[in-house]
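User: Please run a holo structure prediction.
Assistant: Happy to. Please share the sequence and the ligand.
User: Here you go; the ligand is uracil.
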Amino acid sequence: MRLNKYIARAGVCSRRGADEMTAAGNVKINGKVVTTLGRDVADGDVVEVNGQVVSPAKSCVYIALNKPKGYITTVSDEQGRPTVMDLVADVEARVFPVGRLDADTTGLLIMTSDGDFGNAAAHPKHEVYKTYRARVEGIVSHEKLARLRRGVEIDGRMTSPAKAEFVRQSSGSTVIDISIREGRNRQVRKMVAAIGSKVIDLQRISIGDVKLGGLKAGHWRKLTRAEIDNLR
Ligand code: URA
């Protein structure tokens, strides 16, 4: 990759700005000042601008979105329904959803412009715990929570061991947290159906170390460096 493109992709400045900094002697490759423009950066080269190591990966954007109900997790919808893309139009890069949430599920959705990360993180082998807060009909006994933990049969196949915790009881419904590593279609709703209850509301509250926290519905925030590194 050309040096000026490399620096621009690292989010330092424009390509022209990169050329100016290079000509001014502020750029080093592998510890040596480079003043000639148009140099290529090879794999493994270390580029410094004003003494700081920079790399193009930093220009990728990683966000946490609090998806409201009714939004489809897709890039475009043939039926013209609102999609999560409508909520991230103000992000500086084009970001794509990592995994998906049902239209009627709310909560944490990670989106990124980093295609490699998106594909890798969505792969089942990564097995990061995703936690869902579910308000379900009726009373959920300890025995039923234990069944959710051990695994229940959905679509003819057992679910992997999960975490399931009681959160609170309200009149006619129970709030529970369910953490799963798989991502089967409508998995939590089907797991709750398998113990003879029904999900009233479902919200994803965390993915690995990334927490929804107080992020408002329809709003997004950037992931921190530590959150990105942990997910990797
Ligand atoms: N499980 C569900 O049932 N729905 C989701 O959106 C995610 C997990």
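The chain has three domains: 3-54, 62-125+210-231, 129-207.
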